[in-house]
Structures are given as C-alpha cells and as structure tokens.
Amino acid sequence: MTSRLQPPLTRRTLLTGALALGTAAALPLAAAARARAATGPEIAACGTWGARAASEQVVILDSPPQRIVIHHTATANVTDYSKDRAYALARAIQRYHMDTHGWIDTGQHFTISRGAFVMEGRHHSLDELRAGARQVRAAHCVGQNNTSIGIENEGTYTSVEPPAAQYAALVEMCAHICRQYRIPAAEIYGHRDFNDTGCPGDRLYAMLPKLRRDVAGRTGETATDPLWELVRDLPGGGGLGQSDYFPDGIPVLGTAR
Ligand SMILES: [Zn+2]
C-alpha cells in the first residue's frame, strides 16, 4: 500500500497557475471565489507526514459519507504549533492505532494539529475527498465508520477551548468536506453523540452549535439545526455504549513503541 505522492492541489498552486497565465485580473470575482471554495484547506497527505503503509488494503466504500464526527485526541495541549510537531503527532497516532489497537492504519480520516495543520489520517481519505463520491471505511466511531468522516483535533478540550487557529482550520475543513460530499452542516456531531465517551471534551462539544453555524455560513446554508434526533433512531445511530476508542489517550510523543 503506497500513498499517492502527487503533490496536493493547493490554493497556492491555483493562484500561482492563474498568475502565471496572466489571467488572474481577468477572472470574474465570483469564479475566483468558487475556485477557492472548491480547493479547500491545504491538507498534508500521508506521504507528506511520513505515514507507514497500511497493513492491509484500505476499504473504499462505494457511497459518500452522510455526516462528520468531531473528536479530540485526548493528548496534551502543547504549545508547539510547528509543522514538525503536527507531522510527529500524525505518525504517533498511526503507530498507536496500528501497534496497540492492531488496526490496519490510522483510525480517523483527518487530523488537525493545535498549530492548525490539517493532515490526512487513513490512506486514500484525501483522494476520495477530492473526488467527492466515496468514503474510506474508518475506525473512529463505533456504528459510524461506514457513514461518517472522522476528524481528530489535537488536544484535550474538557476544560479549555481549542486555539483559535485550530478552530478556524476545523471550520474550513468541515466546510470543505460538506461541499465535496454535499453534507448539510447540521450533520456535524461529536463522538459522544454516538458512543459512551467524553470525546471531544465538554468545551469542544459545547462549540458544535457554533461550528455548525460557522460551516453553514461558508457553504451558504440557512438551516443549521442538528439532525441528531433523527440520526439517533437509525440502526447503529447512537447510544451504543461502547467505550471510547481513546480510553487512555494517545501515548506521549517520544515514547518508544
Ligand atoms: Zn472520539
């Protein structure tokens, strides 16, 4: 299993291309805005942060995800906001999921560091997001792994809120996912909505109504009421009582494993 090494199409790439063509000034503003919206945030692919190969074939489901599930990593609220730290976190999570849990790869689809770096988690998640039609089967939320995109936010948000930059990256990433897969912002949930867990922490969980509003503001929606009352009654919808996938948190970075 190798990740694609093709460099991601970033906003910078697009702008550079447009300028090189000398057409930037001639681009209608609305078209330029649409181009930015379609591009989404810069996301570091598995190959960029140094992921190991998955231990077996990652399953790609022939259906789009229906919702987004928000997590926190339950790791320390570090003040190292560097890219190096972000990539080390992604590697540590993958190591923990594969070597301790015995999973085939990182459990979640995407990770956002406290320094606001957005990274691919499970292989192929980024390619599928770009295509906007199918999802990678994940391991982040019991009952939702075939129908939702999981985002891990670095930190522990039981008593403090995420850094503003990290929250802004989360908004941008959720808006991008919602646009790509046509998911309403009302379909953004916390892990605890489905499993018996404290994740994503009381403070981040309390921010989800604001997150739905902020995402809806970017996708142009008006209705932002959560659809939880409907989802809860679906098969595997919630209240299953399984323990958190991160019962003891992720080992401190640097721990030999
Ligand atoms: Zn969680």
Describe it for me?
There is one protein chain. This protein is of the alpha/beta class. The chain has 2 domains: 8-39; 44-231, Peptidoglycan recognition protein-like (Lysozyme-like, 3-Layer(aba) Sandwich). Helices cover 35% and strands 11% of the residues. The protein contains 9 helices and 8 strands. It has helices at residues 11-21, 29-39, 46-49, 83-100, 125-131, 164-181, 202-206, 208-219, 228-231, and strands at 43-44, 60-61, 67-72, 110-112, 118-120, 135-136, 148-153, 188-190. A 6-stranded mixed beta sheet has the order 1-5-4-7-3-8, with helices on both faces. Helix 6 packs across helix 8 (208-219). The longest helix is centred in the middle third of the chain and has 18 residues, at 83-100. The site of zinc ion has 6 residues, from loops.
Strand content: 5-15%
Main sheet summary: 6 strands, mixed
What CATH architecture of the largest domain would you give?
Answer: 3-Layer(aba) Sandwich
Strand order of the largest sheet: 1-5-4-7-3-8
Uncertain residue segments: 1-27, 235-257
Span between N and C termini? 22 Å
CATH class membership of the largest domain: Alpha Beta
Which molecules other than protein and nucleic acid are bound?
A: zinc ion
The total of helices stands at 9
